[in-house]
Design goal:
By secondary structure, the chain is α+β, with helices and mostly antiparallel strands. The chain has 3 domains: 51 residues, no CATH class; 72 residues, no CATH class; 277 residues, Fic-like fold (Orthogonal Bundle). The strands form 3 sheets. Strands 6-7-5-4-9-8 form a 6-stranded mixed beta sheet. The chain has a 3-stranded antiparallel beta sheet with strand order 1-3-2, with helices on both faces. Strand 10 and strand 11 form a beta hairpin. Helix 7 packs antiparallel against helix 8 and helix 15 crosses helix 16. The chain is elongated, with a radius of gyration of 30 Å. The two termini are 55 Å apart.
Length: 506
């Protein structure tokens, strides 16, 4: 329970913490004897009579810091991390010398130094000040002695990784403004050397200055091969999941001559290029291009040109540079009818889909290369196919056509090993997209694996050797139904009787 303090009110910080002063000392002692307060540490009391001291102090750490170290400046690694360090240390700058203060759950580690700079540092909670990014970066370039607690400053590698995140999230212009601000305030702080070092590191990472760098991400960025480390961490998560999963090998049927047509048709339908299947047939096999939709027709033709070419679909890259060549070539063919979308050329502007913001343009090549290196550790064709599709889809390397090229790259991995391809029919679109989002936002890989396994099982049950018979089978399985029908209960992707579903094997 939390005791009431309506009688003899005391100055309460954040609703439940009281700091003892000359003025309230007597009132505090009375409240303690009455069971309305309890002591947490020297000069610190609380009206919370139930929770552990560590929990209370940590929840109120900024208010406590402001009361014990008035007008202190949050500095060093704390100013960058915006939270207590892993060992619960909070680093501060005070205008008079103070000793470290160890409390349950928190340790305040003040050092004397220049106070807050008006117009640069900003007011924070509890009367504290927060260092500007420019000042915090320079502070983290100060020499730091190894102590019994965590380093007060970032290592050089940590600092470069932080600058890389700034460049990814805010862009080069914002980082350059911080560099300029550091030069402006450095003389008053006696940190001219740190300002120059910061400038050199930023220039080195941007490739404009010859500066030795310490981090992998910094070195890669300096060579024009910057990458998205958060995406690579996600790719490794998927890779590990796929490596531990047992997939059923489904050999491709012989004589499935119309499979590439339906692969092209459905892959484009998912992306909004919607034709009746008969219209698509006329585009591919009769050369009839609708006058009102020539670009859409060329999308289907471009995709078909790749997926119907057995030799092209049998090409699987064995090294990273070859991977990029194959990716760009296939995209150039798929989008050959849309010259305004720069087919075969990596994007120059960031792209989004709903809540997803894909990899920044200047990080596309490095992220693809890093992701491909992880792919090389996977041996199972289905594992490689799923990983490849997600890699390309998550990077979104082109201005348009990313979903189509991702699925083409996926099926090439399967075709090259004689395995059945994967098609995502209209009715299965929602499940497919939701499984991608679950992995992107929630790191749930199991849903994507289940969806892709089901889709491959569905394809394996369809006889694509005869166009008319294939259409009838696909209609029976609801493949042409709209996703909205599935959500409303009117349609669901049904496996044909010949499909080797996982639950039928049990």
């Amino acid at each position: 329970m939390r005791a009431s303090l309506t009688k003899n009110p005391l100055p309460i910080l954040s609703g439940e913490v009281v700091i003892s002063t000359e003025q309230n000392r007597v009132a505090i002692h009375r409240a303690v004897r009455a069971g309305k307060l309890r002591k947490l540490a020297f000069r610190i009391y609380t009206s919370n009579l139930t929770d552990a001291p560590e929990k209370i102090i940590r929840a109120n750490c900024w208010a406590i810091a402001g009361a014990l170290f008035p007008q202190a400046l949050i500095s060093d690694r704390t100013a960058i991390e915006n939270r207590p360090a892993e060992d619960s240390s909070i680093f501060l700058i005070t205008q008079k010398r103070c000793s470290d203060l160890e409390l349950p759950g928190i340790a305040f580690r003040p050092r004397s130094g220049h106070g807050p700079i008006e117009g640069s540092d900003t007011p924070f909670l509890g009367g504290l000040w927060m260092s500007s990014q420019a000042r915090a970066l320079m502070d983290n370039l100060r020499p730091s002695r190894q102590r019994s607690h965590v380093r007060s400053t970032f290592t050089r590698e940590e600092l470069e990784e932080y600058l890389d995140r700034m460049l990814r999230n805010s862009g080069a212009a914002a980082v350059n403004r911080i560099r300029d601000q550091a030069r402006e305030i450095a003389p008053s702080l006696g940190m001219t050397d740190q300002a120059e070092k910061l400038s050199a590191i930023i220039g080195g990472m941007m490739g404009t200055v010859d500066e030795p760098l310490a981090s992998r991400v910094g070195i890669s960025r300096s060579k024009g091969l910057g990458y998205d480390p958060d995406r690579l961490e996600l790719f490794e998560h998927l890779r590990a999941h796929l490596a531990s999963h047992h997939f059923t090998a489904r050999s491709a049927r012989t004589g499935n001559s119309y499979l590439p047509f339906f692969e092209s048709y459905f892959s484009n339908f998912i992306e909004g290029t919607e034709f009746e299947v008969g219209e698509a047939y006329e585009i591919v096999y009769d050369g009839i291009i609708p006058e009102e939709r020539p670009n859409d027709a060329h999308d289907i033709l471009g995709t078909y040109q790749i997926v119907s070419n057995s030799a092209e679909m049998g090409r699987v890259a064995k090294d990273a540079s070859k991977f990029l060549d194959i990716l760009r070539y296939r995209h150039s063919v798929i989008l050959s009818g849309r010259r305004d979308m720069n087919p075969g050329v990596f994007k120059s502007k960031v792209n989004r889909a709903g809540e997803s913001r894909f990899v920044e343009p200047d990080l596309v090549q490095g992220t693809l290369l890093g992701g491909f290196e992880l792919l090389l550790t996977l041996m199972d064709p289905m594992a490689r196919a799923i990983y490849m599709m997600f890699l390309v889809s998550e990077v979104h390397p082109f201005a348009d056509g990313n979903g189509r090229i991702a699925r083409v790259m996926m099926n090439a991995e399967l075709h090259a090993k004689g395995q059945e391809r994967i098609i995502i029919p209209n009715v299965f679109r929602t499940e497919y997209l939701q499984s991608l989002q679950a992995l992107t936002h929630n790191r749930r890989a199991d849903g994507l694996v289940s969806v892709m396994d089901y889709a491959q099982c569905f394809v394996a049950g369809i006889d694509f050797s005869d166009y008319a018979k294939a259409v009838i089978q696909l209609q029976t399985c609801n493949a042409f139904s709209a996703p909205a029908d599935a959500m409303g209960g009117g349609g669901k992707l049904i496996l044909s009787e010949g499909a080797d579903a996982p639950w039928r094997r049990k």
